[in-house]
Amino acid sequence: MATAGPIVMKFGGTSVADADAIGRVVGIVKGARDSSGLPPVVIVSAMSGVTDRLLELTEAAGRRRDAHVLNGVADLSRRHFEALERLLPPESASDVLAEIAAHLDDLRALLKATAILRSASPSAHDAIVSSGELMNSRLLAAALQHGGVATAWVDPRRAIVTDDAHTKAAPLADPTREAVAREILPRVAEGRVPVLGGFVGATVQGVTTTLGRGGSDYSAAIIGAALDAREIQIWTDVDGMMTADPRIVSGPRVVPHLSFGEASELAYFGAKVLHPSTILPAVAKDIPVRILNSRRADGGGTRITADPPAADRELAAVACKRHVTMVEITSTRMLMAHGFLRRVFEVFERHRTAVDVVTTSEVSVSVTVDDDRHLAAIVEDLRAFAEVNVEADLAILCAVGDNLRNDPRIAARVIGALEGFPVRMVSQAASRRNVTIVLRDADLALGMAQLHREFFE
Ligand code: ASP
Ligand code: MG
After folding, report:
1. Which of 172, 169, 187, 154 is nearest to 226 (CA)?
2. Which pTM was predicted?
3. Which of 136, 213, 277, 294 has the most ligand 1 atoms within 8 A of CB, as the residue to mutate?
4. Could you identify the atom of ligand 1 that is nearest to the CA of residue 219?
5. What is the DSSP-derived secondary structure letter of residue 121?
6. Distance between CA atoms of residues 7 and 102, nearest Å
7. Deepest of 49, 66, 290, 399, by most Cβ within 10 A of its Cβ?
């Protein structure tokens, strides 16, 4: 169901890495404002690298590397003030200067306390890492205002209400909806662009929390869902999800539309434009999520919705995972005794090793693992009841598309396109949304190019 709420625009760390990037964002937000009635709601990450730096400084404070910590805060301070200087003339900058200085004061105090206590409590940790988003949202709000956009900085701790699971807090839907109605909607109604830091929320008692790494996308989805947004735009530094990995296949195209299921499948294969689970609150409410490039604002990007793809779109994309190892396990009895699979998987579980692709036959099971640190121990345990064969230097090649479910000819063509390559495993997941092929890593580039040509060129 289409809704009439505002658009939510989220800008990631690389879209706001420095003053030039922030300048481009100002242009994009101005454009969005001109073309629709309601002003958009803007969510912004910390500048790129800042969250990592804050985490490192927290750790350093706990080890009493006091000088290192002071230098680190000075770097962060310089980075924000330099951007400010380039974006605003001094006479317009005094308010935002004082606001950012206040966040830096809090940060210094929190790191000092961490040094004295020799560790940061979970709530101190969240208060420290939230500074990146708090400062950057102040900066962006001021830059927008200076660029002629009426804005209102909104404290995300007053808008996103979470549980108290610090460092990976979960939003509470009803209190968040009320808070968004109270803190954000009136600004939109006044025609101002609310600007909020992502990643950050607070408990019902007002204690600062964070939503987990990469959490600004989650913030955009949470706020979008609470607002019944028309669309959520995730502005990043790539053109969208691609039909293949551009490092392996030359000239892949942007996938214009993905179903949520397809996006989840592709994300697993390292198409890490976003973590699909973070946009679930939006997709559950049928709000389209669009991935766009802030360096090339005129591209259409990739839309992710709950809708299935058009019936004639055969595949969404092909993806891969390189350098995996296959373990072939054959029952030493004639047929697989019952309990065999359980024993096999218990071994992997005991060694905390995730398996990716699994195929079985009457007497054997083959699995791939990506993390081979515990392989020797795993093989030893498996040999207690099975014959084991290990093959390294393989790759997983995966064709993804919801229509694989409806049209068996697509899967047949996927396999046909790889004719001539020695294939180690073939599997179609229960979702039947993908066909997965394990082949030699040395054959991957050619195999993927051939598959891509068959469906996309
Ligand atoms: N700044 C946070 C992080 O780096 C959140 C985000 O960028 O989405 O994890
Ligand atoms: Mg991110």
Report:
1. 172
2. 0.89
3. 213
4. 8
5. -
6. 30
7. 399
